[in-house]
């Protein structure tokens, strides 16, 4: 009985950890889709609905500790390419999201995606896990304003003489020490500790704006309650999005969520050991179906595509091993249809600590790659580094597929290429050409 209670406590703490690492999507997704002339409050409500629906379904049906929410990158494609570039209305773009979900479901029903995963070489799988780790670490450093823009070198490190950087580093080291000491809920405690450290910044140094709070800064905090906005529910133009000129948009939506989902599931399973006896990610078919339903649902309620979140690694590292972790995180999204301003309490320098630390944990699978076998090491390396360098899971893994296939052919080892991988590589080339 005590062990059961301890396990439940661990799963709940893991769910809270995952939520704290991924809640930024509640405000970031509306901010990005606002560029498509969509109402911020309507997208916020849709984001919460997709996150709660997808995560709870993942927990109940797929029984995996993985959060599902509107994906980063695909939301930018929605706003800046589909709407601004191709000229779709946001209603038509939502229809395209819906149809990509339908295609996704069909691919899942015929077990096409399982065959794709089986065709992915082990070295690429390991590199995807490590690449995701580098990616979320990079996101964490950016969100904490520790890595900043530099017009000459693209990026550089922030000055250590400002209180925000010092607070972030102190929180990072304290949280790291808690992890090393194997303190249960270490990441949550670290986030709370850093949040408390961040409060005096605005008063002592007059720099509250530098903390980059989710819905504003402490000085702009104006209450905790807001009513949900369901104005985007049912707005998808499902028939209007089927124009021939829009098919390429549907293709990119489908391809991106396909490989974002695959790479996330593969990466998380490689890093955590959550696998079925045959070595594939645990309950893969159920997880992929959940991803598909979340995308279809997203189009209907007014958001860009839903997908498995790489930030789920935070909860997995905190001990989450079952669907209870995802259910906990999913339930935590729901109150923020009404309490979204409360997200401003936790600064990004606090939540970013979880991303940086988990990034370091996820680099472990890179040790399983045979780095002296160059026809495998080079594609694995390209996959691992291009995921963070291009800021895209899909782009990184696509280059991995293409480079693997090309190098095998050029080195006289074409017979080692799985026929499905050849098809994947050709599709990857089409995707990269867009």
Automatic annotation (TrEMBL):
Q: How does it sit in the membrane?
A: Multi-pass membrane protein
Which keywords has UniProt assigned to this entry?
Answer: Membrane, Transmembrane, Transmembrane helix, Transport
Compartments in which it is found = Endomembrane system
Q: What parts of the sequence cross the membrane? A: 12-34, 40-60, 67-87, 93-110, 122-148, 160-180, 187-205, 244-268, 288-310, 322-343, 349-369, 381-405, 417-433
**GO function term, MF aspect, one:** purine nucleobase transmembrane transporter activity
For this record, an example GO cellular component is:
endomembrane system
Q: Which InterPro entries match?
A: Azg-like, NCS2
Per the similarity annotation, which family is this?
Answer: Belongs to the nucleobase:cation symporter-2 (NCS2) (TC 2.A.40) family. Azg-like subfamily.
Q: What is the name listed in the Swiss-Prot or TrEMBL entry for this protein?
A: AGZA family xanthine/uracil permease-like MFS transporter
Organism from which the protein derives = Cecembia rubra
